[in-house]
Amino acid sequence: MFTLRALAKRLDARVVGDGDYVVSKVASLVDAGAGDITFLANPRLCRKLAGVNASAVILAEKDLPYLRTNGLVVSNPHAAYAQVAAWLYPAPVSEPGVHPSAVIHEQSQVHSEARVGPQCVVEAGAVLAAGCDIGPGCVIGVNAVIGADTRLLANVTISHGCRIGARVILHPGVVIGADGFGLAKDQGRWLKVPQVGQVVIGDDVDIGANTTVDRGALEDTIIGDGVKLDNLVQIGHNVRIGAHTAVAACSAIAGSARIGAHCAIGGAVGIVGHLEIADNVTITGMSHVAKSITESGVFSSGTPLEKNAQWRKNYVRMKQLDDMARRLGRLESRLQETKED
């Protein structure tokens, strides 16, 4: 629990109303009640503030005229709410130590302030720094390195030689360092190409459930500081993702693509390998990226949903576009010749 004054000091916010009021949990604008704190980030909802039952609202200065309760005035309400929620709902603190069922190789290094849960395997040469929290069923491969205060939830696999930074969170089922999809064709047969690179993950990275990051073929696959990957994301071998880029669920980035910093990639986006995406690029959901993006901005290629009958008509027209363009070009040429005559 926190008083609004205490939260304001942490957030560098301005209190409107009773600074001594105590809040104990967060809630949505609609469901909030006594003792709850909520936030307003969407200006289209500002008129709903009049009916809010929350004890406090985090909001921007411009929305103050609609406020009917206590408030915390900040420049970025959503970010401030994220901080408040983290303070009110801190991650559980685990006691250091190694569970009796864990298998720890004698040549590994597990810090005395790290925790290793049940049924884990830590192989030779692996290093676990202070504050690591390794959940049940995790596998830490040979010579893998896990940075300070990093949390692995259940059944995470870190393959050999991979390096994970500090304060990283890997959610259940994450696989770091599986072989990339490297194949060479020889007389109609596929030959596996050894993947000898590693995966290097920076600090403060968050990777969602069942996401996979493949090891490099020759170079390392690199995930920059502060990157956020959603559930079920596939990162191919040799990919490099710049700092503080976010990738939503079910997206796939093919091998050797270079993604810039501070990008936002929507859900179910497919990015072709060996291309480059500049910094500060937003790609909307369901897009297919087949060539490099050299400047910042918002890019889309997904087809919006429409009634099936209309979609069928449009699809037929789409197949005729090339022929129509050629015919139009010929007509323009004839028109130009007529004008010259």
**Strand segment tally:** 39
Q: Tell me the number of helical segments per DSSP (H or I, 4 or more residues long).
A: 4
- CATH superfamily grouping of the largest domain: Hexapeptide repeat proteins
Q: Which structural category do the helix and sheet elements fall into?
A: alpha/beta
Per-chain topology:
Elements: E1 2-3, H1 4-11, E2 14-16, E3 22-23, E4 25-26, E5 36-39, E6 56-59, E7 70-73, H2 77-88, E8 97-98, E9 103-104, E10 109-110, E11 115-116, E12 121-122, E13 127-128, E14 133-134, E15 139-140, E16 145-146, E17 151-152, E18 157-158, E19 163-164, E20 169-170, E21 175-178, E22 183-186, E23 189-192, E24 199-201, E25 206-207, E26 212-214, E27 221-223, E28 228-229, E29 234-235, E30 240-241, E31 246-247, E32 252-253, E33 258-259, E34 264-265, E35 270-271, E36 276-277, E37 281-283, E38 288-289, E39 297-299, H3 308-319, H4 321-340
Parallel strand pairs: 4-5, 5-6, 6-7, 8-11, 9-12, 10-13, 11-14, 12-15, 13-16, 14-17, 15-18, 16-19, 17-20, 18-21, 19-24, 20-25, 21-26, 24-27, 25-28, 26-29, 27-30, 28-31, 29-32, 30-33, 31-34, 32-35, 33-36, 34-37, 35-38, 37-39
Antiparallel strand pairs: 1-3, 2-7, 22-23
General description of the model:
By secondary structure, the chain is of the alpha/beta class. The protein has three domains: 2-88, Udp-n-acetylmuramoylalanyl-d-glutamate--2,6- Diaminopimelate Ligase, Chain: A, domain 1, CATH 3.40.1390.10; 97-299, Hexapeptide repeat proteins (UDP N-Acetylglucosamine Acyltransferase, domain 1, 3 Solenoid); 308-340. The protein is built from four helices and 39 strands. The strands form six sheets. The protein has an eleven-stranded parallel β-sheet, with no helix packed on it. The longest helix has 20 residues, at 321-340. It is flat. The mean pLDDT is 95.
